[in-house]
Predict the structure.
Amino acid sequence: MIVILKHDVTEDKRDQLIKWFNSQGLGVDVSEGEYQTILGLIGDVLNLDTDMIESLDIVQATRRVTEPYKRCNRKFQPEDTVVKISDVAIGGGNFAIIAGPSSAESEDQVVQIAKSLKQAGASVLTGGAINSKIRTHTIQDQNYKEMAFLEAAKRETGMPLAKEIISVEDIPKYDNVDVMIIGERNMHNYPLLAALGCMDKPVILKRSISATIDELLLSAEYIMAGGNKNIILCERGIRTFADYTKNTFDVSAIPLLKEKTHLPVIADASRSTGLSRLVYPVSLAACAAGADGLIIDVHNDPTSAEKNGGQALSTEFFESLAEDVEKIREVLRK
Amino acid sequence: MIVILKHDVTEDKRDQLIKWFNSQGLGVDVSEGEYQTILGLIGDVLNLDTDMIESLDIVQATRRVTEPYKRCNRKFQPEDTVVKISDVAIGGGNFAIIAGPSSAESEDQVVQIAKSLKQAGASVLTGGAINSKIRTHTIQDQNYKEMAFLEAAKRETGMPLAKEIISVEDIPKYDNVDVMIIGERNMHNYPLLAALGCMDKPVILKRSISATIDELLLSAEYIMAGGNKNIILCERGIRTFADYTKNTFDVSAIPLLKEKTHLPVIADASRSTGLSRLVYPVSLAACAAGADGLIIDVHNDPTSAEKNGGQALSTEFFESLAEDVEKIREVLRK
Amino acid sequence: MIVILKHDVTEDKRDQLIKWFNSQGLGVDVSEGEYQTILGLIGDVLNLDTDMIESLDIVQATRRVTEPYKRCNRKFQPEDTVVKISDVAIGGGNFAIIAGPSSAESEDQVVQIAKSLKQAGASVLTGGAINSKIRTHTIQDQNYKEMAFLEAAKRETGMPLAKEIISVEDIPKYDNVDVMIIGERNMHNYPLLAALGCMDKPVILKRSISATIDELLLSAEYIMAGGNKNIILCERGIRTFADYTKNTFDVSAIPLLKEKTHLPVIADASRSTGLSRLVYPVSLAACAAGADGLIIDVHNDPTSAEKNGGQALSTEFFESLAEDVEKIREVLRK
Amino acid sequence: MIVILKHDVTEDKRDQLIKWFNSQGLGVDVSEGEYQTILGLIGDVLNLDTDMIESLDIVQATRRVTEPYKRCNRKFQPEDTVVKISDVAIGGGNFAIIAGPSSAESEDQVVQIAKSLKQAGASVLTGGAINSKIRTHTIQDQNYKEMAFLEAAKRETGMPLAKEIISVEDIPKYDNVDVMIIGERNMHNYPLLAALGCMDKPVILKRSISATIDELLLSAEYIMAGGNKNIILCERGIRTFADYTKNTFDVSAIPLLKEKTHLPVIADASRSTGLSRLVYPVSLAACAAGADGLIIDVHNDPTSAEKNGGQALSTEFFESLAEDVEKIREVLRK
């Protein structure tokens, strides 16, 4: 980290600050410019409170020169991490489609959808949606009901299961789930991140709609601090002034993340656009930009779905998308 | 709600849609324009899935004409709600300052700060900060430690206590807390909202940095659905491209919220700007815009604070701010 | 347009407003709901001042139900517009790459780059950059100098020429330019839009980094009002909180624009990301999302470019990109 | 400026880069850390192309440590600049209200409004609005007509005149204007900035809705490079996801700008909120945050204004606002 001092700082005050940094176990490299003195801190600055330092009378600004994360940093692990969801690999050249109905309504429905998804090329089943459109006190009950439908479909098809989790207490109920999804609203839910960090079950960590790339990586870091290295990152749109889509899908985040971290990066076009007719072009775009996988909301009959029907693809439309995704993947593989 | 049909819709398809709306218990008022047919829905449309309707082949767009919230809507309760935090009233002309150290470090320190805050005009004590700068598995332990310091200061000064809560399991430990703070990161934490909705303890609900005003009110609505009407809303900045402050304090949100809801509205300039030297002008601005109260981070020695030192005011600086706040309040009272 | 009245409006005031709308040549369809009365306006509402109407005491809100643009609206012209830049077609299934050096430094350099671009598959030459990094009073002179290099390269290669224009006075100097580029900073420069609207030379209109899709289309409409129908729209990123790229490339805007307008839509990944290593994946993503063309900054030696070197591809890297673009186009054509 | 090299850079490549910086007239201070080597550049780096440097293979990132502007930088001129608009001073403790009708409709109307504004405490007259709601080819004609009404009111009341200018060709027509307003849409209109920079007439430079604070100051710098030092900065809202107001008024920008520059800073609440009922609280907030002046849209009969009626205050409402502004000013003066 670099600390830029104000131009009229006395030598006395400067030395006092340097001593304080030394007392924190940091080396300090002083460089005098025409208008400013700059201190280069040497050592582990990850936990320094830059806001506090910037508030000091004699400091003009601070600048980080190393990323504030280590475990997920590609600098410290150049080779790709490959995450295994049961027998499905993601990352390091392995690509997978995770699909299923946001509106899981009956065992029969989910089993039928799962079968057709599997045939069309999806390798992981997902489903259910936990949102406030469900009335207050039944939100968890509703979730367990959907879980039962998905478990049935897993038994029938053998597909591993991906499911969103919103609370630590639910963990025991997620035994049959093969990869935990942390939704964008829980990217900063520290008790949940900490609990999943102590398990070795894979986790899909979705980027909050207000998170920078560094903040996403810091949440990954927070999970990994518990020992769990099986993290998959997911871009699902950020909040901007653009008003036709629910969120703005940040396609550049995909190559940027793959540059900064060794973790796999997938994309969820259904939840970022909120509009099924955009899921097709945006999913293809995500693949072309280098995504390691996709999450896609698919429903047997979107127009009669009990919730989120607006974002779901029909199973037929999904088949066609899966084919084109495969073709784009081939172009990139050459 | 208004449903705008595409201009080439057949009468048949239109009638089918109308029938479906009727089956949902809604009346439909049809109005034919030159290029479009518009359906006006009459009845309770709060739970209609507009995304799904918009995805229908024959629908061009939908437009809500009533707000998607009822309990907190000023239309249904014109008079201001007054929330009592122990014996401190907020709203309906009552103004209060909630202050204390984000970095609560010892019983002695917190008691001293609390005494000087009380004398300077603060009426509710707050403190502690729950964030990821604390290492993974000690985040909760750290919180309970800070709680003990605050409880001691409450006993000494008689000030009611405001404290952030991040998890349902912590509720039993918050018996001595007089008003629960839901931080911006938990504005969509449904299990937590639901649990606090079943209590009658007051709640300060902070606006998520990515939330629109309607979304904030929907979270308030979600709490109120459980029966708890003692909600105080708090503006604490939104995420924008502006890069000098941590967040952009949305001062217009204060008069807008007071127009749309009968709930009290307060402001937290410490956490929105992240810079102590901006807390003063922005807090005054919030008062001038009509806020019912302020949350302010105050520390006995900000430059040596263990965390968040950059945003904390010194106790001396707080005194001066409290005086000016009072003067601005007088201007508005005239 | 829909006008929603407040719930306690007297019949008298309502009738007065209806009369006023009638006096503006509009029909009014009244629909009474439980809590609100809604007026549906019938006729040409494009020029109604919705802000004024919303400010009326008796009005709660207004909602547009028709788009505020006509000439570029796909509703009124379902078939794609094909714009011809000299003999190069864009739109309606025709795809073209517009490329060249943002940093045009000598006749020789630009001619060499143009030759290699042509061979690699680019069909329109562009170049030069008009920005504040050039010192105040030489910004125009610098531009004319770059123009001369581009004109030479046009003569040598026969490629049509695309060049940014920032001022009405420059029009006479742009005789040799085949398509005028309106940069994002001039999307609201009305005198410039009006002047280009009176010509029949094609125009590439770039989306302002703060413009919604409707605002971009309104600027296109403003040009078309003068008679010029040869407009190509260009997505080049919006300003968001995301901090690693100069702007956030809004990939969803491509399919959305193609849905709303019959005009061709192209993408500029160089200027939106500002980082050459992202130009490749983001350009492929734009193609996969359905773009009708690309603008790409290419330089013979990016690291020694006099300006904007950070965003320019080398000619070798461009060749490889052009090949992959062609393959993605094939996947979509099937 | 600080240049951070990648951690595996060879000494050879490093020395080559240092030589290149030397050839640009810059000194280089090398500091070796555990994972990175950092180069501190000494000398004038204002015109260095950081994007290009960041694109070099061996560079990880660059960080500016000095602000990219000099002439408007408070570091180089600690005392406030006072700008005189005719005999009205703004800045350095001097406060002024600039007011008038965005919808200037007749000589009589504007004269009447001006008289009542003057009496209520406004010191500069403004009016007219140049926007696309006027049809294409009459936008300038309309502007000259409004100018005539304002000139008449200036003659009658003796108030100096503030008027928006959108094009270099209009300058000769602005002889009677005492302060030129550069609207947010022209903050990057370099030919216009350059032309006004060569005059000594005062300029109000409005922040673009997509501009950071540094970008606003760079535009001020660009004008000042021509010699004109009479610049007043104006905050008028930024574009964010917040959807109830036209833009989000960034109240923190006021104290931040006053910290970074010696130029006066004023606020335009009318154009940032677009809603007259918010102009009152937001204008008071701007004053409380330390603004040196206000721009306010006032109309004799807002509901019948020909344009922008939604944002205009009535003259009566303005009087009351001006009184409260004065009281807030007194609180701050103490």
Observations:
- Chain C has a mean pLDDT of 91.
- The CA atoms of residues 76 and 103 of chain C lie 41 Å apart.
- Chain C touches chain A at residues 210, 212-213, 238, 240-245, 248-256, 259, 272-273, 277-278, 281-282, 284-290, 324, 327-328, 331-332, 334 (CB under 8 Å).
